[in-house]
Design goal:
The complex is a heterodimer. Chain A is mainly β. Chain A contains no helices and eleven strands. In chain A, strands 2, 4, 5, 6, 9, 10 and 11 form a seven-stranded mixed beta sheet that branches. In chain A, strands 1-3-8-7 form a four-stranded antiparallel beta sheet, with no helix packed on it. By secondary structure, chain B is mainly β. Chain B is about 0% helix and about 50% strand. Chain B contains no helices and eleven strands. In chain B, the strands form two sheets. In chain B, strands 2, 4, 5, 9, 10 and 11 form a six-stranded mixed beta sheet that branches. In chain B, strands 1-3-8-7-6 form a five-stranded antiparallel beta sheet, with no helix packed on it. In chain B, β4 and β5 form a beta hairpin. Chain B is globular, with a radius of gyration of 13 Å. Classes of the chains: A mainly beta, B mainly beta. Chains A and B meet through β4, β5, β9 and β10 of A and β5, β9 and β10 of B.
Amino acid sequence: NAGVTQTPKFQVLKTGQSMTLQCAQDMNHEYMSWYRQDPGMGLRLIHYSVGAGITDQGEVPNGYNVSRSTTEDFPLRLLSAAPSQTSVYFCASSPRADPGQFFGPGTRLTVL
Amino acid sequence: GQQLNQSPQSMFIQEGEDVSMNCTSSSIFNTWLWYKQDPGEGPVLLIALYKAGELTSNGRLTAQFGITRKDSFLNISASIPSDVGIYFCAGSTSGTYKYIFGTGTRLKVLA
């Protein structure tokens, strides 16, 4: 199993641009989530999904959209990038019955 | 957003020493998790705790779910250089998949 994969690893955007961060898992996990990690801070939940077709907001959802059309994929869309969205983004997944999450390697995003 | 308070923020220790860190919250949690993050990587789950008072070990690591359900503790015995990294706690309330993460404890081990 590849586990949780994220693409791209690095991305630089200009203010106002849009883009999609990709996340995929091959473990048939029902639960998937997106976090952002800023320097000196813990991870903050952006959006999460408990299964295909079901998504909900986390702590910091503004400026981000998600969808979950398949169990495997959970893309995160930045609608109009802002410098405040410069961060490292992590995707995670877990089986429904197990709260422990498997994290991907992260995407480092810089917005100029 | 809400964050858990972890202490200490950072610590230098000598190889072979024991390490203790803790995490406190103003809210009651029903699940506590401890993660380790190496530079440039995602966090890796170390220990999961599900019940107040629970004490769980994973090799040299031992974690406890505080009886007030507002805190948790992680101990590392006989530290080695590869223990270097950032340790995060995370908690959630019953029936939710929303995890609140602590601010992290950065551990540096001096050989």
